[in-house]
Design goal:
alpha/beta; 10 helices; 5 strands; DNA-binding; IS_Transposase
């Protein structure tokens, strides 16, 4: 299947920044790809790169969502089965829910932070997914709100409710839990939504080879992922990291 091209008109500009694009792109990639806090990224940058963790935070806010959008626009078409699930997250002592959709291959389709776990919240997630993925998929989740939202919107999607079918979506919450621990909990809905949107697309880009892949195949997948990252960030990755 042919991969979509990234629109050149939507290119990321680093004009006005003191550091070169490869340093900015690499710092944002580290923060979005791995369970690292801002101070860890500051310490992991190469010798001679003197900056503060606050600079890394500003870079991730400024460029993260743009990189995620470009990864999404250049990605292959996703699968026709959506595994939906929600996980509770405490934000300043108030309960919120992170709703997430994953296809049958493990690629995260989207995530949405909401205050409720009901039919209305399920409807918002499903409509958001359908706007971005123009197809009528099979939906799997045991929560009754999805079935109610399906009927109310008249989408008539095939909905399967079985506990064992939803392991992929449940496993997709693990990076959120790890990052939550590293950051000592998210403070508000906006940083959580931004993290969920950016991390999902970067993780999709570097999704590991499945099943019986040898070392050469895994290395080829990694090389293609870094090449794609350079295209979407409009910045070369440092040579010692791209190999």
């Amino acid at each position: 299947m042919k991969r979509a091209t990234v629109p050149t008109s939507d290119a990321i500009s680093y004009a006005g920044y003191r550091f070169p694009p490869d340093v900015i792109g690499y710092a944002v990639w580290l923060y979005c790809r791995f369970p690292l806090n801002l101070r860890m990224v500051e310490k992991l940058l190469a010798r001679g790169i003197e900056l503060t963790y606050e600079t890394v935070r500003r870079w991730s806010v400024r460029f993260g969502l743009g990189i995620a959008r470009r990864i999404r626009s250049s990605a292959l078409a996703r699968g026709d089965t959506w595994h939906l699930d929600e996980v509770v997250v405490s934000l300043n002592g108030r309960k919120h829910w992170l709703w997430r959709a994953v296809d049958q291959h493990g690629a995260v389709l989207d995530g949405l932070v909401q205050r409720r776990r009901d039919k209305r919240a399920a409807r918002r997630l499903m409509r958001k997914l359908l706007r971005k993925h123009d197809r009528a998929p099979r939906v799997t989740d045991k929560l009754g709100s999805y079935a109610a939202a399906n009927q109310e919107t008249g989408l008539n999607l095939e909905h399967r409710q079985h506990k064992g079918l939803n392991n992929r979506a449940e496993n997709s919450h693990q990076p959120t839990r790890v990052r939550e621990k590293v950051m000592r909990r998210f403070k508000s809905a906006r940083p959580l939504q931004r993290f969920a949107s950016i991390h999902a697309q970067v993780a999709n880009l570097f999704m590991p080879c499945r099943y019986h892949s040898n070392t050469q195949q895994k290395r080829a997948v990694r090389t293609r992922a870094f090449a794609a990252l350079e295209r979407v960030t409009c910045a070369p990755m440092p040579g010692r990291f791209a190999a």
